[in-house]
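Exam revision sheet. Question 4 asks you to relate a sequence to its structure. Input first:
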Amino acid sequence: MLMHAKKVLWLCGKELRSIRADPIVMVLIVYTFSFAIYTVATGAKFEVEHASVGIVDEDHSQLSRQIQAAIAEPYFKPPQEIGVTDIDRAMNANEFVFVIEIPSNFEADLLAGHTPSLQINIDATAMAHAGNGSVYLQNIINSEILRYARRDAESAQLPINLVVHSRFNPNRQSMWFNAVMQIINNITILSVILTGAALIREREHGTVEHLLVMPVTPTDIMLSKIIANGMVILLAAFISLKVVVEGFLQVPVAGSLLLFISGAMLYQFSVTALGLLIATFTTSMPQFGLIAMPVLVIMNLLSGSTTPLETMPEWLQNAVQLMPSTHFVAFAQAVLYRGADLPIVWQDLTGLVVIGAVFFTASLLRFRSAIVAMH
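Answer key, structure tokens:
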């Protein structure tokens, strides 16, 4: 046992030297866990911000002007008045996300006790703005109509005092969510690509045969690639979490970093084993890329890091439980956002262990069969 451990450590040193000698890989790792994290966290936002609004004011009343004045920064840009005949052209040209139509006699009908209609046209291709922005606009318009109809801001209040408390992200900033989830996504991508590429590189350079004439086993070779590449990625992820996420982005981490790193190690074992498994089915880097990319896209999009699992069909929710990324995302969100401890997240950790064992066993069997075929 001790002899196998020494062999694995020696092979890990070889893998680390190989990574250090490749400047492209080093640049990729640094970029992935620094600039890529920062730009995605600050650039991709789910909340409404600076949405463009057009307004067709055919009433030209005090109420219509009051509604227009209430639509303001930072959620919306100042509304631009347009003609009713310009609505289709402006929305087709992507000039506005929202166009509000206030018909003539709107104020007079309201004061007369009628129920006049006010229309909001929405460009639903801008999904984040379309969903949340329409709710914001409805609340603004309803509030202004109620205030104007009663002519008294205090009497316009609802008969209840609704108090909302947002836990774990009080200001509901998407940056807090995007930063941590992007680290998880990048861990997945690099773990699969680096380990798979390492095995294919050995095969293309003919060094697999050199290793096999040495007193090492296929298990030693696979473990060394998993451990070496996993160590590099975990170290980069930890530095990114402390420097980029907590430092530059000022995103607080609620839970134990030690528990997160422990879970990340289990996740590394499963996804690096998956990368090796994919590599055993390919003979070149282009083939590996063609197989790995759709696998990575599915793992990232359906893991819960982009959209909640609850929004997916029930059969799909059950199917994605077979992916390690699903369990790791749930684990990371519980630990880093909600400060969960081991008794809460042990089931996700168990899932990572089981899935990792299956991937490792399958890749080891495939690797051994490939070695036999080579001889």
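Marking note for examiners. Residues 342-374 form the longest helix (33 residues).
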